[in-house]
Task: inverse folding
RNA sequence: UGGGGGAUCGUCUAGCGGUAGGACGCCGGCCUUUGGAGCCGGCUACCUAGGUUCGAUUCCUAGUCCCCCAGCCA
């Protein structure tokens, strides 16, 4: 039973669902739901919930997963978000198969359920102020006290609730509360609020209503109305579960869903809370909700991350009840793994250093054959122009090469990818700054790529771009949003102080091979030896703009780092 | 000090009374016209203390530590 029969690894929720199904609970049906409030954009934490809910439905014969907008708070919600959320869920590769709902569609039914509760004496209109209600609620260690209005007659409650609904009262004057137990050790059971007055226009129902149900009332009933069998949510709702069950039972709702909680996703070196994301956007600390530094799905998409990578990540991290913080490197691993298989390779020089091949004829241009993707032979080959002057990466030359540096240095040889072995003859320096401005090299005509007669080995192969054929580009490199080891600032301190001021690195004057000239926004490439990049929508016909999705693993960077770190 | 949850390699995660497995990461090697990819090998983990049992990560007891809850947010 617990052996995985699909591509999905199991987890305790899948196990519970399988057990219920085997036992014929809910008639053997499995219906889950993803219930966002349309008050913000989705992020990778939501992706975990989406993958879980839709994944279970997908893997269960006859299983369904609904998309439901929990839009019970008119003051925070916006249709822009309902659109964006649908796009994001679809982009991730999931399909609600027409089962898209809104809690606001249930306002009539919810209202009727509230009346049922009032009639049963299980709900009452409270006329305490918000402050008074808080005072009566007690504390974590002290029980609450009954409101003086708790004993109102059913008739009065019915009348008052009708007048609340009719708009006779201002915001906050009355509230409908469940009559449960003000002494409960579970604060959620101390007569929770079911309805509040809000004279606000709802983006879907307009001004038809001026009372709105709370989450604790609307959510379980929405689940029940839709016939949800397994209502999956995050851990912080664990002690709402008794209330969830109470609402479903006391209203006599026709169906009893089961709430199951799991730990939300946390990732290192980024922020996931709605509040912090919003703050970053509003204070213009990032460029918008789709800033590629953000873990929003829009941001990840713009950065070049694929939905396949996100799904693989979600699958791998599992679902459990213990709080966990997943290392960003794990996400990066799945991004690289996916991009490695699918990305065409091209050559691009991020920080160009001009190279003149002194013994190469000036007027000649050769078209060299380059492999598009060594992981995928069917991707074929392309021609890359080679000429006497070209650009290589500044990092690929060292005037005074350290140990284990295999690249170019005075008197040293290196292979130009798909081309010749060249030897560095001299380096020209800026007399002012001492910076290397130009390299002079010679090439060995015998060593052209593909010529078999000579099998000379060199330690390194470097990428390059022919100078006269180069296409200009701007490239954006992204670094962690947060400074390392700053995750735990004192709570009273401004968290934005832990932001990495260098999270965005803008490179201009980059050069890329000419095959990229007309690359479309969104297209992804591996820049050989550098990383995975995608064309940003900011690209224009004049300037190509690339985002680095993720770097390639860099063995030399590691060596260099350990060389610099003195032994202890 | 109320209630609800949770503790397994550095980080995630499996385990359901019978040699603690996998992934990421890290270290080393092989291979390589990407210091990429791939391949091979290695890496001080069951919170503590008792108990039950032939045998405990698993069951029991008592602790310890961590997370959540006092919105008319979700």
Result:
């Amino acid at each position: 039973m617990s052996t995985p029969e699909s591509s999905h690894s199991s987890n305790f929720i899948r196990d519970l669902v399988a057990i219920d199904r085997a036992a014929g609970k809910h008639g053997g049906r499995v219906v889950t739901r993803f219930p966002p409030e349309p008050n913000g954009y989705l992020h990778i934490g939501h992706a975990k919930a989406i993958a879980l809910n839709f994944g279970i439905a997908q893997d269960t014969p006859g299983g369904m997963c609904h998309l439901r907008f929990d839009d019970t708070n008119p003051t925070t919600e916006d249709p822009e978000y309902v659109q964006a959320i649908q796009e994001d869920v679809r982009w991730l590769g999931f399909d609600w198969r027409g089962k898209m709902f809104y809690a606001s569609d249930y306002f009539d039914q919810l209202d009727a359920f509230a009346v049922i509760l009032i009639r049963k004496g299980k709900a009452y209109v409270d006329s305490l102020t918000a402050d008074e209600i808080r005072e009566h609620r007690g504390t974590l260690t002290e029980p609450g006290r009954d409101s003086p209005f708790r004993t109102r007659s059913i008739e009065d409650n019915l009348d008052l609730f009708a007048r609340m609904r009719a708009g006779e009262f201002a915001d906050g004057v009355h509230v409908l509360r469940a009559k449960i137990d003000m002494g409960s050790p579970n604060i959620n059971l101390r007569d929770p609020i079911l309805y509040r007055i809000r004279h606000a226009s709802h983006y879907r129902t307009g001004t038809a209503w001026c009372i709105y149900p709370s989450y604790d009332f609307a959510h379980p009933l929405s689940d029940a109305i839709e016939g949800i069998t397994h209502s999956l949510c995050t851990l912080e709702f664990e002690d709402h579960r008794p209330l969830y069950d109470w609402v479903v039972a006391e209203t006599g709702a026709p169906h009893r869903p089961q709430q199951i909680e799991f730990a939300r996703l946390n990732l290192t070196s980024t922020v996931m809370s709605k509040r912090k994301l919003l703050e970053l956007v509003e204070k213009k600390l990032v460029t918008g909700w789709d800033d590629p530094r953000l873990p929003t799905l829009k941001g990840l998409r713009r950065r070049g991350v694929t939905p396949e990578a996100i799904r693989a990540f979600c699958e791998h991290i599992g679902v459990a009840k213990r709080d966990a913080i997943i290392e960003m490197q794990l996400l990066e691993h799945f991004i690289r793994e996916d991009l490695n298989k699918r990305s065409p390779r091209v050559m691009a020089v991020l920080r160009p250093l001009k190279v003149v091949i002194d013994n190469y004829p000036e007027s000649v241009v050769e078209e060299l054959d380059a492999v598009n993707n060594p992981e995928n032979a069917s991707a074929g080959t392309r021609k890359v122009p080679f000429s006497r002057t070209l650009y290589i990466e500044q990092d690929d030359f060292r005037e005074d090469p350290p140990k284990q540096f295999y690249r170019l240095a005075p008197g040293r040889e290196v292979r130009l990818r798909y081309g010749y072995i060249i030897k560095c003859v001299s380096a020209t320096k800026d007399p002012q700054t001492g910076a290397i401005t130009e390299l002079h090299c010679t090439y060995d005509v015998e060593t052209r790529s593909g010529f078999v007669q000579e099998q000379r080995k060199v330690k390194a192969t470097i990428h390059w771009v022919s100078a006269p054929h180069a296409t200009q580009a701007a490239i954006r490199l992204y670094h962690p949003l947060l400074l390392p080891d700053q995750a735990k600032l004192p709570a009273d301190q401004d968290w934005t102080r832990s932001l990495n001021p260098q999270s965005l690195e803008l490179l201009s004057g980059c050069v890329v091979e000419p095959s990229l000239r007309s690359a479309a926004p969104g297209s992804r490439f591996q820049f050989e030896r550098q990383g995975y990049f995608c064309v940003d929508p900011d690209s224009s016909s004049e300037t190509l703009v690339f985002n680095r999705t993720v770097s390639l693993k860099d063995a030399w960077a590691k060596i260099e780092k350990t060389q610099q770190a003195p032994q202890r």
The CA atoms of residues 262 and 321 of chain A lie 5 Å apart. The two ends of chain A are 52 Å apart (CA to CA). Residues 44-59 of chain A form the longest helix (16 residues).
